[in-house]
Specification:
Strand content: 15-25%
Shape: globular
Helix content: 25-40%
Number of helices: 7
Radius of gyration: 17 Å
Number of strands: 13
Structural class: alpha/beta
Order of helices and strands: EEEHEHEHEEHEEEEHHEEH
Largest sheet: 9 strands, mixed
Length: 254
């Protein structure tokens, strides 16, 4: 299975304390390396990293990350990383022919979240989104969250940062098919800016956007200094397998 990690953005809310968000360290590992290792643990054999802002710095770290994770990792640059993240999806996943996992470089996900997506599979040539129904969790930033309204059958009705009726929060992890790329392109053609949520809403309107509940699994969006501190405090407890080896020092120098 292929996977795509979005790592093209500016990371503006974290930049004052960490200038390059994907390479921000949590103990011995960078956020990007954690994402690669977690994807490898659920059977991914190739990871594509969509790069943009500070691309040279991020891409220089990829060979070491690939070697230590034991998985192929390659970069694909986003032509204009000022554009919404759906453009990064289209650039990074171009040429993917089957199901692929899609995650954000700044989202920490326990293995259970990714394994739940892989086990779920994608019906109707669409997409499945991992959701958390704990909308009042202290780990969720309500000012930045993407909210999800679901139907009784688990399909997405509405998705976005500004919707007022919702049942869950988007965890930033997807099991997708090339239909997602087509949906983003269709949304752009229809006048939308081209966010990932724009494409997801197109698939939802078609009845092809599904959800899987993470059932209490741990995740956090490391988007600002507060979230980074929480992540550093909790990651070893919730992802102990990442730090199990005393010999493992990570690929990003201290």
């Amino acid at each position: 299975m292929d996977a795509l990690i979005l790592a093209a953005g500016f990371g503006s809310r974290l930049r004052e304390v960490e200038p390059c968000k994907p390479l921000t360290r949590l103990h011995s590992l960078s956020l990007l390396e954690i994402a690669v290792r977690q994807l490898a643990s659920v059977g991914v054999t190739r990871v594509v990293v969509a790069t943009g802002y500070l691309a040279d710095e991020i891409e220089a770290a990829l060979p070491s990350i690939a070697e230590l994770a034991g998985i192929a990792v390659e970069a694909r640059r986003v032509e204009d990383y000022n554009l919404p993240n759906g453009h990064s999806v289209m650039a990074g996943a171009a040429g993917f022919s089957g199901e692929f996992l899609l995650v954000m470089a700044d989202h920490l996900l326990s293995r259970q979240v990714l394994q739940g997506l892989v086990d779920r599979g994608v019906p109707d040539h669409g997409v499945v989104l991992a959701i958390d129904r704990r909308v009042d969790s202290p780990l969720v930033d309500p000012d930045d969250a993407t909210w999800v309204e679901t139907g009784d059958d688990g399909r997405i009705r509405k998705i976005g940062k500004s919707i007022t009726r919702y049942h869950a929060v988007d965890c930033g992890a997807f099991l997708a098919t090339p239909a997602l790329l087509a949906a983003i392109a269709s949304a752009i053609a229809g006048g939308k800016a081209g966010s990932l949520s724009d494409g997801m809403q197109r698939l939802a309107d078609d009845g092809r956007a599904w959800t899987t509940d993470i059932d209490g699994a741990w995740w956090i969006d490391v988007d600002d200094a507060r979230a980074l501190e929480l992540a550093r405090q909790q990651v070893m407890e919730h992802c102990p397998e990442l730090f199990a080896s005393d010999e493992y020092q990570g690929s990003v120098p201290a």
